[in-house]
Amino acid sequence: MNKLSKTILVTAVLSALSAMPITSALAADGAASKKETVKVPAMRSKVYEQLARAQGLADEGKTQEAIEALDNVNDKRGSMNSYEIAMMHNFYAFVYYNMENMPKAIENFESVVAEQAIPESLRLSTLYSLAQLHMAEGNYDKSIAKLNDWFANGGDTENANAQVLLAQAYYQQKEYQAALKPVVKAIKIVSDAGDVPKENWFVLQRAIYYSLKQPEQVADVTETLVRLFNKPEYWLQLAGMYGELGLEDKQLAMMEIAYQQGFVKSRQDILALSQLYVYHQVPIKGAELLKQAIKDGKVEEDVKNLKFLAQAYTLAREDEKAVPVLAKAADLSTDGNLDAQLGQTYLNLEQWEKAIASTQAAINKGELDDPGKAQLVLGMAYFNLKKFDASLKALELASEHSSSKAMAQQWKKYVSKEKENAEAMAAISA
Predict the structure, then answer these.
(1) Which end of the chain has less Cβ packing within 10 Å, N or C?
(2) Beta bridge partners of 31
(3) How many other β-carbons are positioned within 10 Å of the β-carbon of residue 331?
(4) Looking at the 3D structure of the chain, how many domains does it have?
(5) What is the greatest pairwise CA distance in the chain?
(6) Does residue 296 sit within a domain?
């Protein structure tokens, strides 16, 4: 049972003997009785003394002796009136609660409300305690029933804690629409009073909207959580909701502000922000963020992450920064695709020999997604080294693949012509 529940339960029971005359009524969780339907008999002093003794033993931690004292009272229940019997069960419930015997506590509280001639305030406090105990025990339908009885008997409908308890019980029963109304009411009650509702109330409201598949409302509540409580998880969750709603600009802005506040720390969040930067055409930011995270050990230096880092640098037209990353990734990879990508990068940098070496390594490793493109890179690199025969051989192989056929044939014509020109010049020189 949570702290709130325990406080209310203990207060309701202890006040029975220590804070009122023996003939007066218990306070029912701050709610005054709205009606008195039956005449309540007085508690006789001898019964009061016996119950007070049981209470004293319980306060000293002598729970078993307190139970025995109450058993002695129970032996004489034939001569007791309804109010005295109800108060005896009230104290049984308190002692069993302290012993963490919730079924016996519930059983005795049920015996309290079974008596007709008791103060309405006692009935109210007991119904509320039963609602809380059933909630703690997972008896959500019974918790709902007791709360509805509490309201029907004059329980304060403006009691925000009671409304939230009802919402929690309905939520656990997966009755999400029924759960929504009381939690919204609880938040309004507290807000209208100029106070800040409890954080976990908003969390419950958000969970209900999520279960109802209402993402816009989930985002709205998360915005409130960000504004009122400014916790890292709320910033990140809100960014995720914006992404789910297709509001990518807001998603990036939220993630970037969270990063500036030091909230983006986990591997998953760092990768998400890096990907967002690339998606929003700011690849250099994504690359630098990921590079630092790998350096700091927050993100693994594996093939997947290195490949993404290299792609980010390439998109940012930072080929020289992409080269060492691709080289490391290629060394870790079992297929030749990253070597082929490295070869392409060297070609872009006009480093022909390295382009040939990396591309040949890719071909040797095999399992290429686009073997024709690799041969095309070889053909271009050999051409720039004026190795026309090697170039034409590679371009011939490239033309055998549909993905590179058209470009390979164009290059073959161009290389053949340049070869003829070079041979003619050589002949003239000779």
Answers:
(1) C
(2) 28
(3) 11
(4) 1
(5) 136
(6) no
**Average pLDDT across the chain, whole number:** 88
Radius of gyration (Cα) for the chain, nearest Å? 38
Could you tell me if residue 4 is inside a domain? yes
User: 403 near 374, Cβ under 8 Å?
Assistant: no
The residue type of 277 is: Y
Statement: residue 2 has pLDDT above 60? no
Q: Which of 320, 341, 239 is nearest to 280 (CA)?
A: 239
Q: Which of 322, 345, 335 is nearest to 370 (CA)?
A: 335
CATH classification of the domain holding 101: 1.25.40
- Residue ranges of alpha helices (H) inside 19-157 are 45-59, 63-74, 82-98, 102-114, 120-136, 140-152
Taking the C-alpha atoms of residue 425 and residue 9, their distance in angstroms, rounded to an integer, is: 104
Q: Report whether 290 contacts 309 (CB < 8 A).
A: yes
Residue 237 lies in a domain: no
Q: Which domain holds residue 8?
A: 1-137
Q: Residue 55's CB: how many other CB atoms inside 10 A? A: 21
Does some domain include residue 68? Answer: yes
Q: How far is residue 194's CA from residue 197's CA, in Å, rounded to a whole number?
A: 9
Tell me the per-residue pLDDT of 349-374, one tens digit each, with 9 for 90 and over.
999 999 999 999 999 988 888 999 99
Instruction: Tell me the per-residue pLDDT of 142-179, one tens digit each, with 9 for 90 and over.
Output: 999 999 999 999 999 999 999 999 999 999 999 999 99
In order of 260, 291, 294, the CA distances from 284 in angstroms are 17, 10, 15
